[in-house]
Design goal:
Number of strands: 14
Low-confidence stretches: 1-16
Strand content: over 45%
Strand order of the largest sheet: 1-3-4-6-7-8-9-10-11-12-13-14
CATH topology: Porin
Mean pLDDT: 85
Distance between the termini: 57 Å
CATH superfamily: monomeric porin ompg
Number of domains: 1
CATH architecture: Beta Barrel
Order of helices and strands: HEEEEEEEEEEEHEEE
Length: 314
């Protein structure tokens, strides 16, 4: 029955390409994981709180197809508003060379989507929106290594729990319905002579199979890089962000196997502006970034916006 539906879908859609990663976007939104001081852990022990807001607007043109939550969607368009609350704790250590922290990421998501859903060999236009707590991210331990005050490395392992709203056939789920692992590392270097900061974040999104739809998204490599030129006493700066996502294994499951597997990739680039209104207790930083996605294959193509307050309590 499932193969018959796939064959019917392909004949109706005239062999249009499908998208990689369930929903065409996945866990990582282009250019969002890198922030100023992304690899700096500690050294002051104690609790912390960060609030990080951003939005995404993406679409799939050309009547291409997107597998979303067990259904096939044509001309998928998605808008998202995501506010991530990050409570953290930096542990006390006997050395200033290595620090450890633990954290949770609690996303509060609004997700709106529209498109044409395939049912009974007919595409029917639909739209929906949902808002709730998304999939919670657990970060048991981040290891911060201080080569010097201006040269830092972090190593971590993130775990997504399927806590967000997810239903089969819902094109505006705020969660993905699967456990996901992300080993990652970050690097921060501050070139003091020229007041330039370089930040890089590299990770791998490793998805588990969705039991409800029998769909397995492939592993996604991603890299976010940022350079910021600061002015004055490092209170304000302007810079640029470049990011890449490349799927390194094919999606799996009956649908993907029938299509001989497929994978996606995309690039993103854009400006960023940072202004530190208050250094600490609490730290208040105003941020703006705009990431335009290009060279997109088999994924949603759109724009990422971050315009708000980066709040850090320590």
């Amino acid at each position: 029955m499932r193969k018959w539906l796939i064959n019917a879908m392909l004949s109706v859609a005239a062999a249009m390409p499908l998208l990689a990663v369930d929903g065409g976007i996945g866990r990582t939104i282009t250019g969002t994981w890198v922030i100023p001081g992304v690899a700096v852990v500690g050294p002051t022990p104690g609790p912390g709180l960060t609030v990080l807001p951003f939005g995404y607007m993406g679409a799939i043109g050309g009547s291409r197809l997107d597998p979303v939550a067990g259904v096939i969607v044509s001309n998928d368009q998605a808008n998202a508003s995501i506010n991530v609350v990050i409570p953290s704790y930096t542990w006390n250590t006997d050395t200033k060379k290595v620090n450890f922290s633990s954290a949770l990421m609690l996303p509060v998501n609004w997700w709106g989507a529209s498109g044409s859903v395939l049912a009974n060999n007919i595409f029917t236009s639909t739209s929906s929106a949902n808002a709730s707590v998304g999939d919670i991210i657990f970060i048991p331990v981040t290891v911060g290594i201080h080569f010097s005050q201006n040269n830092n490395l972090s190593v971590s392992f993130w775990i997504w729990a399927p806590t967000g709203l997810w239903r089969t056939g819902n094109i505006s789920n705020v969660g993905m319905g699967v456990v996901t692992f992300m080993p990652n590392f970050g690097h921060t270097y501050y070139w003091e002579k020229h007041k330039v900061e370089f930040d890089n974040f590299v990770g791998f999104d490793i998805y588990q199979r969705n039991r409800a739809t029998d769909y397995g998204s492939g592993t996604m490599f991603h890299w976010d890089g940022m350079a910021i030129k600061y002015f004055g006493q490092k209170k304000g700066g302007i810079g640029a962000i470049i990011a890449n996502q490349t799927q390194i294994t094919d999606d799996t499951g009956p649908l993907a196997e029938t299509l001989n597997g497929f994978s996606g990739r995309k690039w993103g680039v854009g400006p960023t502006v940072v202004y530190t209104a208050r250094a600490d207790n609490p730290g208040v930083t105003l941020q703006f970034r705009w990431i335009n996605e290009f060279h997109v294959r088999n994924m949603l193509k759109g724009n990422v916006f971050m315009a708000g307050i980066y709040f850090k309590l320590k």
